[in-house]
Design brief:
997 residues, alpha+beta, six-stranded mixed β-sheet, 17 strands
């Protein structure tokens, strides 16, 4: 990286525009940047850093960049930093402008413009600059990628701060680790340590969780085994827990199986005793059953003896019934013939009662002849019946024609009246349509004016409210502006007082024999003294903080005032100058007119539909009038034809009716007469037939009774049993025979008779003995089942515990491995003898590289006396890995860098800074750094050492490299000819180039 040119405007102490031509300074190779204290030497380096990274080093970066602006700059001048450089073979120009609080272009107050950035690249082919980006993020990423280092690395490598490296030489391992960690970005190794520790805790939790589950299974096994299992006194995570649980489970399983064998033997013995008791109980019960059976049979035989007389009577009654069954068919036939004859006689008497007296005593043949004559006369009236029906139809048709005529007359009257008013009604409807259409057009016009009126009214109300807010914001901005001016004046006054007394403040830090930070002298004959009312740094910084807070409040008030004013202008432009009340009244009147117009226009569709329906009604009524006229003409012709047909039919029917009112009445009378005669003739024939069958049945019944042995048919009928009585009598006879046979069979059984001769048995005692044996078997079976369940539960829990142990084994191995790695990387492991953390180990390797690179220049600066070496030794109880020692070739001894003198510390820290720059540059990808800056510390060197240091720095010019020394040591102004001087003034600092070119 080579710097070509730096342009700053209103930046830091520079109130105007200043330029630095690094190409001119670089021709000498070594140049000096000097100036009085507070003039702005460091601000030049801050400008380079700000151009590259958009921020300045360390604590000098605050806020959003507003503090970078020079207090000496005119209000209308924008703070700008432009850097022209070459990096990685590309010529780039970076321009940055921090946020800027400027006066508003319109109105009073200030506004804040956002920060801006530009990145351009020089095209050697076209000889012109081309824009690359205006994005802060893109420019930052591009610069970081090209340089290969962060802002912190750049400030340590390119802007070599000697004070920081002197402190680095005296620092302990912890502080060195923090600095090297920022430079080499080794936080990822710290993240590895953290991740390993988190992984160790996670795997430990998994192992503990698995051990807890294993212990829970062990407790369940102990509950299942009872007193046969003892648990180990271990906790989750303790070593050997799994083996102890599995061993205890094996012992419990063996004990449970022994208990199961004993329970099985007890159950077998109890079952044998129960079998013998059951057999004895069965024998006793069988003997008792046979004795009861014999006693019951003797009792049944006695009851049969008592019912023997009734049984003989039933047998005789059954014999008479069997004889009467031979006469039963003749009795049934005679009863059926008698019933049929009676029914036929009743029907005949009823039929003859309906006949005339002349035919009441006629025979069946005479009645049939009279029925035939009535039927023949009825057939002759069929034609007259059809004529009479047609005459009735004619009357109905004539009445229908009269009804149609009356309906058509009503329709014609109503239609004529309606059509007479048609023209007037149509004109009224058309006028209503025209009025509704006019109202619709008026509503559309009013609707277009409603939204602008509402918007203007809302803007007027907003205008009134913003006018009140503007007055309040103006008062607030004015008050904060006065407060900010007062705070700034107070701060400038204190700052000037402190600058006037800065010598006393510097003298307060002088120590006898130690070099002065300004002139480098070790003797201090007349140090300045603080006077009364001296202003120190803390007072100035408090005043500056008060001034900045007041400025921030004033900026915020001005921004708020500008926002309110802009809103007020926008609202006024939209609402105009009309009062809000008048605009509200106009808007309300417009809404009323619009509502009325909408209401009038809403009737348009209904009126149109009403007109369309009226036109359809007009067409329908006109057609109806024409159809009524046609129907009237047709009815006249039809009425004449009906009258002629009616006269002809009436003449024919007068002759056919005879003395009846109608042909139908006469025909109905003939139909009834023929039916009665036919029914009476049939009933007479049926009565004669049934009388003959009854006579035949009486003769057959008398003959059957005699053959069956009965004196009369009545005696046979009395002996005959119906089905229910016969079945009941037969059942009684069968039950007697069955019971008699069963009793004889039981009394004939040999074993039953033998049992009856033996004494009675005690069944209850045998049952008690069998019940006792059964309870013993159940108890033994319950004990055996409990032992089986205990064995099964122990087997199940043991299998689950073994599975858990196998599943936990990889987790335990992983935990052991992760725990060893975590302890090793954290420096707490016994294997890590030096207690060196992983990040410290990496940093130790980097520090060893830095020490080797620094030694090359340190030997030359110290005339070969000193060498920097890295040490892994532990310091006290701390961790090792970041020790740094210096080897004195004159004494051959190795000592800590904190024992170096002031001058030795300077060139040692310079060598360390240069060595660190080389290592970080290699780490960043080998980007060549053609421009370096070294800040302060040269006042502590004697002339010879200063010459040697300058020779080393002058050697850095090899291969076209330039080195800038930032110092106010007067002797350097004689030794270094190319100089960039920072001149301090009340209106701001300026830059002056001399001795170059």
């Amino acid at each position: 990286m080579r710097l070509h040119r730096l342009d700053v405007t209103a930046f830091g102490p520079f109130g105007g525009s200043q330029s630095v031509d690094f190409d001119t300074l670089s021709t000498a190779g070594l140049f000096l940047l000097h100036g009085p204290t507070g003039a702005g030497k460091t601000s030049v380096l801050d400008a380079v850093c700000y151009a590259l990274y958009g921020s300045v080093p360390g604590a000098r970066q605050s806020g959003q960049g507003l503090t970078l602006r020079s207090d000496h700059a005119p209000p209308g001048t924008r703070t700008t930093v432009t850097l022209d450089l070459t990096v990685a073979g590309r010529r780039l120009e970076i321009t940055r402008q921090p946020p800027w609080e400027r006066p508003k272009k319109r109105g009073t107050g200030t506004t804040v413009d956002k920060a801006q950035s530009w990145l351009r690249e020089y095209d050697a082919v076209t000889g012109a600059w081309k824009d690359l980006s205006r994005s802060h993020q893109e420019i930052g990423e591009e610069v970081t990628q090209l340089l290969g280092m962060s802002r912190e690395q750049f400030c340590q490598v390119v802007l070599l701060p000697q004070g920081d490296f002197a402190a680095f030489l005296r620092a302990d391992a912890e502080k060195r680790g923090k600095l090297l960690g920022r430079l080499f970005e080794t936080h990822r190794f710290a993240e590895v340590e953290k991740r390993l520790a988190e992984r160790r805790r996670a795997t430990e939790a998994d192992v503990r969780e698995g051990d807890a589950a294993l212990l829970a299974d062990a407790h369940r096994m102990q509950q299942a085994a009872g007193d046969a299992m003892e648990l180990p006194e271990l906790r989750p995570g303790d070593p050997g827990l799994a083996e102890a649980v599995l061993s205890a489970a094996a012992v419990a399983r063996a004990t449970a199986r022994e208990q199961l064998t004993v329970a099985g033997c007890r159950l077998a013995a109890a079952e044998s005793v129960q079998a013998a008791a059951d057999r004895a109980l069965d024998g006793v019960r069988e003997l008792a059953r046979l004795q009861r059976r014999f006693a019951e049979a003797r009792e049944r035989a006695r009851r049969l003896e008592e019912r023997a007389g009734a049984h003989q009577e039933a047998q005789a009654r059954m014999e008479r019934s069997r004889k009467a069954e031979a006469v039963a068919p003749a009795l049934e036939l005679r009863d059926e013939a008698d019933a049929e004859h009676r029914r036929a006689a009743t029907v005949e008497a009823h039929a003859r009662a309906a006949l005339p007296d002349t035919l009441a005593d006629a025979s069946a043949a005479g009645l049939a002849a009279a029925a035939r004559r009535a039927t023949e006369e009825l057939g002759g009236l069929e034609s007259a019946r059809r004529a009479e029906q047609r005459l009735a139809g004619l009357a109905a048709e004539r009445a229908d024609l009269d009804r149609q005529e009356r309906a058509d007359d009503d329709v014609l009257g109503e239609t004529e009246a309606w059509l007479a008013d048609w023209d007037t009604a149509r004109s009224v409807l058309q006028a209503r349509i025209d009025a509704a259409q006019e109202a619709a057009g008026r509503a559309e016009q009013l609707d277009a004016r409603r939204e602008p009126a509402r918007q203007r009214l809302a803007a007027a109300r907003m205008r009134d409210r913003l006018a009140r807010d503007t007055e309040a914001a103006q008062r607030q901005a004015l008050a904060s502006r006065e407060a900010a001016l007062a705070a700034r004046a107070h701060w400038l006054e204190l700052k000037e007082q402190r600058l006037n007394g800065i010598a006393a403040e510097l003298a307060a830090n002088l120590r006898e024999g130690e070099p002065c930070a300004v002139c480098g002298a070790t003797e201090h004959p007349a140090p300045a003294r603080k006077v009364a009312g001296h202003v120190d740094r803390a007072a100035e910084e408090r005043a500056l903080a008060d001034h900045q807070r007041a400025e921030e409040r004033h900026t915020e008030d001005e921004r708020r005032l500008g926002t309110v004013r802009e809103a007020l202008a926008a609202a006024t432009a939209e609402a105009g100058d009309a009062p809000t009340d008048r605009l509200a009244a106009e808007a309300e009147q417009l809404e009323d007119e619009y509502a009325r117009a909408r209401r009038d226009a809403s009737a348009l569709h209904a009126v149109r539909e009403e007109l369309r329906a009226a036109e359809e009604e007009h067409a329908r009524r006109t057609d109806a009038r024409q159809q009524a006229a046609l129907r009237a003409a047709s009815r006249v012709a039809r009425r004449d034809a009906l009258d002629r047909e009616r006269v002809t039919l009436e003449e024919e029917l007068t002759q056919a009716r005879g003395g009846f009112g109608s042909v139908a009445a006469r025909a109905a009378q003939l139909e009834r007469q023929a039916a009665r005669l036919t029914e009476a003739a049939e009933a007479a024939r049926t009565a004669e037939d049934t009388a003959q069958r009854l006579k035949d049945a009486d003769a057959r019944l008398a003959d059957a009774a005699y053959r069956a042995g009965f004196e009369t048919p009545g005696a046979a009928a009395a002996a005959l049993l119906d089905d229910g009585a016969h079945r009941e009598l037969q059942r009684r006879l069968d039950d007697w025979a069955t019971e008699q046979a069963a009793v004889r069979a039981v009394l004939a059984e040999a074993d039953t008779a033998a049992a009856a001769e033996r004494p009675p048995v005690d069944v209850a005692a045998a049952e008690d003995a069998a019940a006792t044996a059964g309870r013993r078997v159940r108890d033994a079976a319950s004990a055996r089942d409990a032992a089986v369940r205990r064995c099964a539960e122990l087997d199940r829990l043991s299998a689950r515990a073994a599975t858990g142990v196998r599943r936990l084994a990889p987790l335990r191995e992983e935990h052991d491995r992760v725990a060893r790695l975590a302890a090793l990387t954290a420096g707490t492991s016994a294997d890590n003898e030096r207690r060196m953390r992983l990040e410290s180990y990496v940093l130790a390797a980097r520090l060893e590289q830095v020490a080797a690179a620094a030694t090359v220049r340190l030997k030359r600066m110290s005339s070969g006396r000193y060498t920097l070496v890295h040490s892994d030794d532990r310091t006290g109880r701390g961790r090792s890995g970041l020790g740094l020692h210096v080897v004195d070739a004159w004494t051959g001894r190795e000592r800590d860098t904190a024992t170096l003198s002031g001058g030795e510390t300077f060139f040692a820290s310079l060598a360390l800074a240069l060595g660190l720059a080389d290592v970080v540059t290699d780490e960043a990808g080998g980007v060549r750094l053609d421009t370096l800056f070294i800040d302060e510390g040269f006042g502590s060197l004697d002339d010879q050492t200063l010459d040697e240091v300058l020779d080393v720095l002058d050697s850095l010019r090899e291969r076209d490299r330039s080195v800038g020394i930032v110092s106010h040591v007067a002797d350097l102004r004689r030794r270094v000819h190319a100089q960039l001087e920072v001149v301090k003034g009340r209106s701001g600092s300026t830059l002056r180039l001399s001795g170059a070119g």
